[in-house]
């Protein structure tokens, strides 16, 4: 089973090492490395755009004491961009992430399932953007229940601005 080790919000700027304060605006970049996905957080004052090999990035604020409230999810456009950047991926980690993101976008009604096709012994979901004619083909990686839970947990970590 593939393990996902994406760091939560580090509370330190990846460039300067300075501590990020509660309520401060920061940028997170999810980058590719040979070991998998890596999250880097930057203070707004040093952010000059996403670093090389960035799959997705977003702007957020360092949480203050939430008092038990649910963490805020990143904007839907970030989820769509992440999903689209993973198009054409063939390695298992990216296929798994893209599949889970597709399910999330289906649940949010941003994508609609038009049909399912079988090619080369693989099930492929054919999805269409609700707001347009763009068609997306997503491989069902056939995740087991424990694998599905692991990928969902990592996607949740990324999307809920930890």
Write a structural description:
The chain has three helices and six strands, in the order βββααβββα. The protein has 162 residues and is an alpha+beta fold. The longest helix has 16 residues. The mean pLDDT is 81.
Write out key terms for the chains shown.
three-stranded antiparallel sheet; alpha+beta; 6 strands; 25% helix; 162 residues; elongated
Uncertain residue segments:
none
Give the topology string: H per helix, E per strand.
EEEHHEEEH
Number of helices: 3
Tally the structural domains: 1
Multimeric status of the protein = single chain
Query: Given the C-alpha coordinates, what overall shape results?
Result: elongated
Distance between the termini: 24 Å
Strand content: 25-35%
**What strand line-up does the widest sheet have?**
2-1-3
What structural class do you assign from the helix and strand content? alpha+beta
| Average predicted confidence as pLDDT | 81
> Radius of gyration in whole Å, from Cα?
17 Å
Major pleated sheet? 3 strands, antiparallel
| Secondary structure: number of strands | 6
Helicity level:
25-40%
